[in-house]
Design a protein that fits this description.
- With about 280 residues, the chain is of the alpha+beta class.
- The protein has one domain: Deoxyribonuclease I, Chain A, CATH 3.60.10.10.
- The protein is about 25% helix and about 25% strand.
- The strands form three sheets. A six-stranded mixed β-sheet has the order 3-4-2-1-14-13. A six-stranded mixed β-sheet has the order 5-6-7-8-12-9. Strands 10-11 form a two-stranded antiparallel sheet.
- The chain is globular and about 45 Å long.
- The protein starts with a strand and ends in a 20-residue tail after the last strand.
- The relative contact order is 0.15.
Length: about 280
């Protein structure tokens, strides 16, 4: 099963790009962020014409998240985090799809820092951490996927010294991401590519994509029951080079249908001296 996350940066304005990518790569489940469209303006018909069911949590001009599936019905379990610090912002949607709980999220940017936007980011992150703990405690297979707006380490950002005071890279935000991982989540992309320079976002300015001056801020986190099914994790970075594309690239994982079989250990023969 191929599960992807993609910040489309405007689902209607980038619809040709989204549809082209869906048709070419055929991911099974997709989490979208930054729809920038009210609930009634989501392009459900065009997406369903490609064989995808869809649920979405829209918001006029800003934010917005969605889950798409071509491998079964989407059974929505939640929209918005419990005790969300600002429920008016559409940043979280959750559903059961093909035996997996999918949590699609768009974490606040937090700039400028300091200020109310940064305070909101920290509060929202804390709320996510609390909800993520309950998901793990359920024992269900869970994927948390989306734009986390955080570069976890210096390996995840081009020229990290330039980002020292940015809300995506401050010690407080990176510490929150580390706390989330320490609950028992697997950062799929970094797990399979521990030493690679790998980005998911390139700004529109200063030829960032051409210079490969990027950030890794789009993540797919796996619960313990899914971690041993992880087969592959990649970024479709070529999509960032398409005309009128998002500043993010689709990021995806591939899961095996079943966990790898464990080899049975043969009982050791007793030593002659033990008889």
């Amino acid at each position: 099963m191929k599960i992807a996350t993609y910040n489309v940066n405007g689902v209607n304005g980038r619809l040709p790009v989204l549809l082209r990518w869906l048709e070419e790569e055929k991911p099974d489940i997709v989490c979208l962020q930054e729809l920038k469209a009210p609930q009634e303006k989501f392009p459900a018909t065009a997406i369903r014409d490609l064989g995808y069911d869809a649920i979405w949590h829209g918001q006029k001009s800003w934010n917005g998240v969605a889950i798409l599936s071509r491998v079964g019905e989407i059974h929505e379990t939640r929209r918005g985090l419990p005790n969300d610090p600002d429920p008016s912002q559409s940043r979280y949607i959750e559903a059961a799809v093909n035996g997996i709980i999918i949590g699609g999220l768009y974490l606040p940017n937090g700039n400028p820092r300091p200020g109310p936007k940064f305070d909101y980011k920290l509060a929202w992150f804390e709320t996510l951490i609390r909800h993520a703990a309950t998901l793990l405690e359920s024992g269900l297979p869970v994927v948390l996927a989306g734009d986390f707006n955080v570069m976890p380490t210096e390996a995840d950002v081009y020229k990290p010294e330039r980002w020292a005071n940015d809300a995506l890279f401050t010690p407080e935000v990176r510490a929150l991401y580390a706390r989330l991982i320490e609950q028992g989540w697997t950062d799929s992309l970094r797990t399979l590519h521990p030493d690679e320079t790998i980005y998911t976002f390139w700004d529109y300015f200063r030829n960032a994509y051409g210079r490969d001056a990027g950030l890794r801020i789009d993540h797919l986190l796996l619960s313990q029951s899914l971690a041993n099914r992880l087969q592959d994790a990649q970024v479709d970075r070529h999509v960032r080079g398409w005309e009128k594309t998002s500043d993010h690239a689709p990021t995806w994982i591939r899961l095996a249908a079943e966990p790898p079989a464990q080899k049975l250990r043969r009982p050791s023969r007793p030593n002659k001296d033990d008889k």
